[in-house]
Write a structure and sequence with these properties.
7 helices; single chain; globular; 227 residues; mainly alpha
Length: 227
């Protein structure tokens, strides 16, 4: 039994949202000062993301809760995490075009409406939020330190990649009985999906929402190009 279940917009939730905002601000403010040490930042982010995911699997094994139904790395943010690691290690700009939208869009949604059972000070509380913050910061690093910029074509590249991933995950769900990427049913905690209709129609609604989020993430660069 979980003694202290996580509560949406509780103090522990708001603190982590604040940490995300503060981390992004500091990463942006010190981009000039740290420009000569940016490789240290890049490798630190990559190492942290890898270590956080490895620690999760160790926790699964240690606690005996590993189950292919919900312990495989097929949630969108887990996929984005591995893409972020490769992106940071290779500085691949094509991969950035995809990870910027999938990583930031998915991780922000997860931060705002966490599918999380454990609250502070449980390991899973820290892992969930810190890993999602690092996913967002990884793309912001590429944006502010490596000067990568998404284009309008990037929006569609990311959307196609999302649907290819969804098809693969759909069959993973069929094989495991899982609900990766919430393609089998809605999450149990309150989320945006609650407003998108019943299964399976909310999946089509999610496609529209994903496109809207992608275009919103691209909007600052559209404005930048017009100036």
């Amino acid at each position: 039994m979980i003694e202290d279940p996580f509560k949406w917009l509780s103090l522990s939730h708001v603190v982590m949202l604040g940490l995300l905002l503060l981390s992004a601000i500091l990463l942006f403010m010190f981009r000039g000062k740290f420009s000569k040490r940016k490789d240290i930042i890049r490798y630190t982010f990559a190492f942290f993301l890898l270590a956080s995911e490895l620690s999760l699997y160790l926790w699964y094994v240690y606690t005996g809760v590993w189950d292919p139904i919900d312990s495989l790395p097929f949630q969108l943010c887990s996929i984005s995490l591995f893409l972020s690691i490769i992106m940071l290690l290779t500085k691949n700009k094509i991969l950035f075009e995809i990870t910027y939208f999938l990583g930031i869009g998915g991780a922000i949604q997860a931060m705002l409406t966490p599918e999380l059972a454990y609250d502070f000070p449980h390991y899973r509380y820290f892992h969930f939020f810190l890993a999602h913050i690092a996913i967002i910061l990884a793309s912001l690093y590429m944006l502010w330190y490596e000067m990568c910029r998404p284009t309008l074509k990037s929006v569609w590249k990311a959307f196609v990649a999302l649907n290819v991933i969804a098809v693969i995950v759909y069959f993973v769900n069929k094989l495991t009985g899982g609900n990766y990427m919430f393609l089998a049913h809605k999450p149990y905690n309150p989320s945006l999906i609650d407003f998108l209709g019943p299964y399976p129609w909310y999946i089509l609604s999610l496609e529209v929402v994903a496109l809207i989020i992608f275009f919103l993430l691209y909007l600052p660069f559209l404005v930048e190009r017009k100036e």
